[in-house]
Amino acid sequence: MVYLCKFCGQQGNFRCKRCKKMPYCSVVCQTEDWMEHRRTCRPVDLEPAKEKPKESMALLGAGHKKSLTELQASDSSSYKKVYLKDLQASKITDGADIQATVVEFTSPGRFFILPQNPEVLEALQIISTELQKTCSNPSGTAYLPCDGEVCAVQFSCDKNWYRGLVQSLAADKTANILYIDFGNEEKVPFERIRPLPANIQQFCPCVMKCRIAGVVPVVNEWSDECCITVRQLLAGKAVTVKLLETVEKECAHAVDIQLSMRELLSSFLLQNGYAQNEPVNAPPTKQDISAMLNASFENFKCLSDGKDDNGWATPPEPLTQAVGDKFSVVVTHFLSPSDLVVQKVENAGLIQDLQLTLRNHCSQVSTPQNFRPAPGTVCCAQFSEDKQWYRAKVLAYPSEERVCVGYLDFGNAEEVDLGQLLPISASLLALPMQAIPCALAGVQPVGESWSKDCILALQRQLSNRVLQLEIQGAQEGKTLVSMIDEASDPQTDFAELLISAGFAAPASTTVNLSAEETTATAAASVSPTVSSSASPAVSQPLVWSMVELPSDGQTVPLLTSVVESPGRFHCHLGSPTELQKLMELEVQLKHHCEAEASPFVPKVGEPCCALLP
Question: Which PROSITE patterns does the entry mention (predicted)?
Fold first, then answer.
């Protein structure tokens, strides 16, 4: 998604340093907007208060307020905060068998192992030694940690210092700490927490958070009997662990463990009735989709009596383009090479004006109590990340008060509260949808679907770049495109890049034709051929057909293609249906001319195919 400056509406490539969310194009705009933004700004990474003393005081809630003396003491030294993302990545790869000790066990769905690897054990020794040396002296300063920070923490049992991850902060000046090199947790007061010293090497966490792969509890949670039994089997013991998958969203590893009798722990759990097989995320069937739509409609109807269903606000027309069109784009939403969304760079000014108009409109419209837009209608929705308003189509009602919306000009979707929707005006629907759903032409996945490595690699290549796009055709409601990064040296064709890297296989570019064209093509393919002994077929003369415009005063949308004079110019019918037919005709012409090799002598007045120079 392309983010726009909250104050002026231009493209905002910078973020508020305090909340890391609100986009701005410059320091000037951020300063001008501060009086309004400070009401909603919430810190993610607390900065040293000596730079922003007033903000630091504001960051402390009612339960976190310090005296001015304590705050000034904490500001006397500046530290670079360390987060998990700053630590080195683990060198253990999926599919590896490792010898490890289970050091902390909660359930088969959450436990920690310490690999019995000389490098890991040496790193653990170095970290422990350096922390005791550095943190042995009293600091004399108070320190306020923040969520997600890796700090030096004094363990309550042995009073030694260890690396701890701040998982949450409480109003009583304590933090919930996870010791990332051992896997245990405890509640620690702020006075036993310090910033991680700069001399501590940023090794990856020594323990690995794991769960048993392929199984889930029979009921919602793992039973006490199951947890006690498995803990007795594993706790403190050296075992062989097979790393099956790294689940980045959970920051955990899906593993299986080999027990003493060569039995896998997953099998043990299934045989003893402690677990059931994890359901496979198969694509939903037609029945599943129908059931979801029915449930969504019932959630919508439940509280809709007497409410404004927004039925008049239909989605605006999509942008129109033809095969062979070339233009510069930015990728605003990416899921895979077959599912991405782009915006035209040349339309950046239009989008900027639209966002400013939306902002003014939504600031003047109060949330109506009876507003409950029906699925398929368009309204204004407040995006959860930047709290700005965008044009959105209501997709479904997952619950009575929650709505799934799709952002028309950027391509992404999310679930929001009903209170985050406002009615839209007719003037805001005049601009066509700026999001162009695309699929990369000429490639297909090597297996059944695109691999995670492929998606990550291409996402890095596409993000924050202006790319040159050429339309190749259309397929399954998406525009088939080729994309080139002209700024790279040599220029990067992303389809060729995926194929050369082994992420994709070549595929032909196919185009969906209208029913009439498909029927004609099928009929031609089964028509009998004429034998060489028969009389040669007499070709019927080709004649032009013309589009007839209504002459009864109707208004018809037209797109001008050639203007010779005010008295003579040429146009296309501008409706989406006619433009789609034109695009499909161009594809047919291209395929016909590439396949036709016989010589041709044109006659005056006869229709033919010609290559535009």
Answer: TUDOR, ZF_MYND_1, ZF_MYND_2
